Amino acid sequence: MKGSKRAVDLKLCALGLPAALMFFALYIVPFGMTGWYSLLNNSFAREFAGLSNYIRVLGNTNFRLAVKNTLTILLMTVGGAALLAGVLAFLLLRVRRTIPALFILVLPLFTPSVSITTLWQAVFHTSAFTSPGSAYGALVSLYLWKYSGTAAVLLYVGLRGVERDILSAAALDGAGALRTYLCISLPCAQAHAGLMLLVLLMYAFQLYKESYLLFGAYPCRNMYMIQHYISNHFNKLNFQNVAASAVSLTALSLLLYALVYPLWRRREGGKR
Amino acid sequence: MKKAPGLLLAFFLTLFLLPVGALVFLSFLPPQTAQAVFEQKAAPGMLRLTLEQFACALGDDAYGRQFRNSILITGASLAFAMPVALGAGLFLSRLPRRWQRPLLILYVLSLLSPFQIIMLPVYRLSLMCGLYDSYFSVILLNTFSPIGPLTVCVLLRTVDDSQWEAASLETDSALQILRHVLLPQIAPGMGALALLFFAQVWNMVEQPLILLPDERLRPLSTAFNDIVRGNTDYAFSGALLYALPVLAFYLTAAALSARARRSAAR
Q1: B120–A246 C-beta distance less than 8 A
Q2: Are the beta carbons of A42 and A240 closer than 8 angstroms?
Q3: List of E strands, chain B
Q4: Among A249-263, B124-138, B168-182, B214-228, where is mean pLDDT lowest?
Q5: pLDDT the model gives residue B98
Q6: Hey, where are the domains in chain A?
Q7: Contact B64, B58 (CB under 8 A)
Q8: CATH topology assigned to domain A53-271
C-alpha cells in the first residue's frame, strides 16, 4: 500500500490551491470591494456615506429607466428563447436523426458576436438613433438566434431522460403528442428546464455586449440597460454611482436566479 | 402529416444557418455591391463573386494588428487557463463537502454575474498592480475565469470513487494519478471546455473596453466596429475571417465527436 486516499486528496487539493486563491483575488474580493465602495462617498478619501449612494442612484430617473428596460429586455429575450427552445425540443423528439440538427442549433453560440452583428447592423440599420421597434427587433432576434438553439439542446437532453413507460402509458390512454409533451414530458424534465432558464438568464445579463456592438455606448432610450448606466458612469469617473448601481444589479440578478433556482433544484432534492 | 415535424425542424434549422450563410455570400461580393444589397440598390448584374473584400481586409494594417491581438490574448489565456482549470477543479472536487458547497456557490455566482459588477475593483486592482493598459490584465482575468474550474469539478465528479481509492493504493504521487487515471477519463470534456473557453475569450468585449484604453492593444472583437466604420469595404469579409478560427475549432470538435460516436456504436 503506497498511500492513503486522504493523503492523496490533500496533495491534489494543494496542487490546485494557488489557482483557487487567485480566483478569489480576482473575482470574489472585487465582489466585496464593490459593496464596500458603494458605502463610501469617496473611494479615495474613504469617508463612510451609509446608504446615501443608493438613495441617489435609486432616485435617478435614468437608473429607473435602465431598470425598467433591463427587465423588459430580460422578459422578451428569456421568455422568447424559452418558448422557441420548447418548440425546437418538441420537434427534435419527433425526428430520427438528431445529431446534425444538434450541431446546427449550437453553432450560433460559437459564432463571435462581432461577426454576426455586422450582418444585423446592415439588416436593421442599427445606430444610436434606431427606432424603438427596430431596436427591439434587432436585439431580441439576435438573442433568439444566438442562444435559443443551445437552450433547446439542454431541454432536449432532459426530455430524452423521461421514462418511455410513462410516455407509452399516456399514449395508450389516448393522449396526443402535444398533450403528452406539455403535460408529461415537460414536467418530468423540470430540472433541465430550470437549468435552461438559468443559462438563458446568464446570457441575457451579458446582452450588453451585443447591445454595445449594435448601438454603441449610448443607445436609444428603450435599449438603455443597467449595464449602460454603469459603463457610462464609469467613463465619467462617477465611481460611487458605479458601485451602488453594480450592487443593485447584483441584487436584481440574484433575485431572478432565486426565482428560477427551485425548478432546477427539485431534481437534486428528488435524487437524495 | 408524419413528415410535418421533420419539415418544420428543417425550416428552423435553415433559419439558424441563414445568417452564417448570408455572411459567407456577402463576403464574396464586391465591396460596394455588398452594401448596396441592403439599400436595395444592387442590380442582378452586380452580383458577381470576387475576393476583393478579403484582399481589402488582409491589406489593412489596423485589421491585421487587432486580429493579432485577438490571437495573442486568446492563445495566452487558453494556454494558462487550462492547467489552472485543472488544478482549481481538482481542488474543488476533493474538498470535504462542508467546504465544497459554499465554494461551488461562489464559483457559480461569479460565473452568472455580469462583468459590470466587478468592473470598478478590477480596474483599480489592475492600476495598483501596474497591469492597466497591458495584455496581461485581460489575460490574467481570463486565466482565472470560473467556467474552467467549475467544468473540471463537474467532470471529476463523474470519476468513480473506487478508482480514486484504487489509484491511491498504487501510488502516492498526485501528478501520476492526475496523468494516468483522471486525465484520460475527462479528456473529451476538457476538449469541450477548451472550445467553450476559446469562444468566450475570442468573443470578449467588455473587459478590453475597461482594461485596455489604448485602442491599438484591443482585440478585434472590441475594435472591429470602429475599424469598419471608417472603411466599409471589407465589413463582411472581415467579420467572416474573424469567425473562421472559432467555427473551424467547433466544426473539428463536432466531426471528432461524431466519429467517436460512430466507432462506439460499432
Answers
A1: yes
A2: yes
A3: none
A4: B168-182
A5: 86
A6: 53-271
A7: yes
A8: MetI-like fold (1.10.3720)
* All domains of chain B in start order, with CATH: 51-265 (1.10.3720.10)
* φ, ψ at A41 (rounded to 5°): -90, -10
d(CA A191, CA A262): 9
When scoring A119, A240, A247 by the number of chain B Cβ atoms within 10 A, the one with the most, hence best to mutate, is A119
A 115-134 → B contacts, CB under 8 A: 115-119, 122-123, 125
| Nearest one of A147, A111, A136 to A215, comparing CA atoms | A136
ipTM: 0.89
Residue A104 is nearest to which of B13, B89, B210, comparing CB atoms? B13
Could you report the per-residue pLDDT of A82-111, keeping only the tens digit for each?
999 999 999 999 998 888 899 999 999 999
Stretch 206-265 of chain A: residues touching chain B, C-beta under 8 Å = 206, 208-209, 212-213, 216, 226-227, 230-231, 234, 239, 242-243, 246-247, 249-250, 253-254, 257
For residue A79, pLDDT over 50 is answered with yes
Q: Is the pLDDT assigned to residue B138 strictly greater than 70?
A: yes
Most confident listed range (A2-16, A169-183, A198-212): A198-212
CA nearest B147: which of A206, A267, A151? A206
Q: What is chain A written as a DSSP string?
A: ----HHHHHHHHHHHHHHHHHHHIIIIIHHHHHHHHHTTEEETTTTEE-TTHHHHHHHH-HHHHHHHHHHHHHHHHHHHHHHHHHHHHHHHHHT-S--HHHHHHHHHHHHS-HHHHHHHHHHHHT-STT--HHHHHHHHHHHHHHHHHHHHHHHHHHHHHTS-HHHHHHHHHTT--HHHHIIIIIHHHTHHHHHHHHHHHHHHHHTTHHHHHHHH-SS--GGG--HHHHHHHHHHTT-HHHHHHHHHHHHHHHHHHHHHHHHHHHHHHHHH-
Q: What percent of chain A has pLDDT over 90?
A: 60
Radius of gyration, CA atoms only, chain A = 23
Q: What is the mean pLDDT of residues B252-264?
A: 83
Dihedral pair phi/psi, residue B214, rounded to 5°: -75, 110
Backbone angles phi, psi at A42, to 5 degrees: -155, 115
